[in-house]
Amino acid sequence: xxxxxxxxxxxxxxxxxxxxxxxxxxxxxxxxxxxxxxxxxxxxxxxxxxxxxxxxxxxxxxxxxxxxxxxxxxxxxxxxxxxxxxxxxxxxxxxxxxxxxxxxxxxxxxxxxxxxxxxxxxxxxxxxxxxxxxxxxxxxxxxxxxxxxxxxxxxxxxxxxxxxxxxxxxxxxxxxxxxxxxxxxxxxxxxxxxxxxxxxxxxxxxxxxxxxxxxxxxxxxxxxxxxxxxxxxxxxxxxxxxxxxxxxxxxxxxxxxxxxxxxxxxxxxxxxxxxxxxxxxxxxxxxxxxxxxxxxxxxxxxxxxxxxxxxxxxxxxxxxx
Amino acid sequence: xxxxxxxxxxxxxxxxxxxxxxxxxxxxxxxxxxxxxxxxxxxxxxxxxxxxxxxxxxxxxxxxxxxxxxxxxxxxxxxxxxxxxxxxxxxxxxxxxxxxxxxxxxxxxxxxxxxxxxxxxxxxxxxxxxxxxxxxxxxxxxxxxxxxxxxxxxxxxxxxxxxxxxxxxxxxxxxxxxxxxxxxxxxxxxxxxxxxxxxxxxx
Lengths: 321, 203
Hints:
The complex is a heterodimer of chains A (321) and B (203).
Chain A: E1 8-19, E2 22-29, E3 42-50, E4 53-60, E5 71-76, H1 84-91, E6 97-100, E7 104-105, E8 115-121, H2 126-138, E9 142-148, H3 157-164, E10 168-172, H4 181-185, E11 192-197, H5 200-213, E12 220-223, E13 234-238, E14 243-247, H6 253-259, E15 278-288, H7 296-301, E16 304-305, E17 311-319
Parallel strand pairs in A: 8-9, 8-11, 9-10, 11-12, 13-17
Antiparallel strand pairs in A: 1-2, 1-6, 2-5, 3-4, 3-6, 3-7, 13-14, 15-16, 15-17
Chain B: E1 26-32, H1 36-43, E2 54-59, H2 66-73, E3 78-81, H3 85-97, E4 103-109, H4 111-123, E5 131-135, E6 141-145, E7 151-155, E8 157-158, E9 160-161, E10 168-176, E11 181-186, E12 199-200
Parallel strand pairs in B: 1-2, 1-4, 2-3, 4-5, 6-11
Antiparallel strand pairs in B: 6-7, 8-12, 9-10, 10-11
Helix pairs in contact in B: 3-4
């Protein structure tokens, strides 16, 4: 059983080109029903039927948690990826019917916080748009620090600055501006929680700086969805099902298992939530662990794999599925 | 390291460790006479340039000056001493209201002092993982009479008579972190005439 087993039929109500690399997609229920409630930081999984290939990619909801007549996501086009974002940009048009999962939140605001400090890099801005709407309505102090390569690539930077005023600070790389994490994290009142979503390097620097300054781990939150990487095709034996499957170059192991009709748990599809953790029955070769879930020891043991993002190279991989 | 004599009990009953300096933007200490040596033990190991980050509050026993001198000699950024735990905890609240994320709180001494320091830290927004406690000295308890809500300090007997409502209270291991007090409930409610021997048990 997984969140994406019960998909919600929606119609694409609007597609907006935010800038040359980012588009916003808005969805309404096909019957006009209210969509499920969610809180800031939640994501949905969007199912894409692309010429015989079924993809399911997670995207953070950026629309207001207080408005349930529609959802909005923003998608950054990545031409070197597996094709999900390219499909969204090129094939998805208003009026089209699609399926999405109910929202799941792995990046919620901690409501005990006295202040929310949000740090966004690039397209990592999307969950914060919903979170700021929520924090603003709850009347809890918040501050957004939003860094992007250039003003032209910084989606929603102007509108957020207009809407939330002093709560928002913007930084553009091409102007030589950057967030001074040391100063920022040294000047926060007790009871502050910090949230970071953006490139891997940014998340690492924020977490390292906060830790070295003595921030408790429970006050540091981050979300980093991985797109399943492309790679060489490989064969896998599913022990319970008694079948062999082939994982294509641009397909994830999870998608290949699903395509075979074999049941598997999953939620975030991006290496973060841990739901799809699968027992490895036999492994003669190398597992490319690409997830954020297993620790170093578990990776080395080769007894567990996260099929949503990890791949295999070698003679034989047998899974307990 | 810890010389606490606390026995294992229900999960609500706090247990304590030994102070150890961890990375932090600032280090706040609160101790009474029984805990002073714990503060001295960890602070004197710090390099001189870290003393700028150290702030110490102290509650001496009346008439005692030797430990005040030793604590002062550590060279902390701020060192203040107060005649009562209440006064010192109030000052801690003032200091913490200006403190930043990354601050660490270290508490050492009797349970009453430690418990009230924990409660103040929490009220000021400190995460419990940023608070360390080392228990030293008496096992005397701070007890709340659950009937009239009176706080009774330095309780050493079982049961104890509430000085406010005169009920005879069973001092339980059930502890409130919010109130920094053990709960005392009437021990002979069904038959108030029942005589119960009062023994000194929390020494």
